[in-house]
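Running this now, will post back.
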Amino acid sequence: MATPEGWSHVRLGELARVKRGASPRPINDPRWFASTGPGWVRITDVTRSRRILRETTQYLSAQGVERSVRVGYGDVIMSIAGTVGRAIIVGIDACIHDGFVAFNNLRSDVDAWWLVYTLRHLEQTFASLGQQGTQVNINSDLVARTEVALPPLAQQRKITAILSSVDETIEKTE
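Update: finished.
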């Protein structure tokens, strides 16, 4: 595949560590949950949020947090089960279950918003690769092996500025 000058082809796993979430089990045990604390990210929280995840409908107890994967402000997460390929930036202290992956330790030459827009562009591709079962899902290795064209950081920021401007216009219109 041809790339513009200065761009390179890389795997997502080369841009960041792709880490799958974890769920406390059994999932319906009330000791994992609390009325306050780190948010427990559900797909409904992500689909309700436009650009930044700012709230969740459930929260984890200290015991629940120990059995999950913590994410924080500025982290990129993406759904890998059910609604596959939905990416967002985290704007709160939260935890992800095994239906999400987090992109940790993002390389310094990668803009987090550019990664979100790239993942959103790949949403249908990820969904088509999903293993059928009770619900469609993909695994973290498949995500990590996915190749993308990586522009230089300055171009990533220009692309992001344009797409963010479009998103903001859509939000104001709605």
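The chain has seven helices and eleven strands. More later if anyone needs it.
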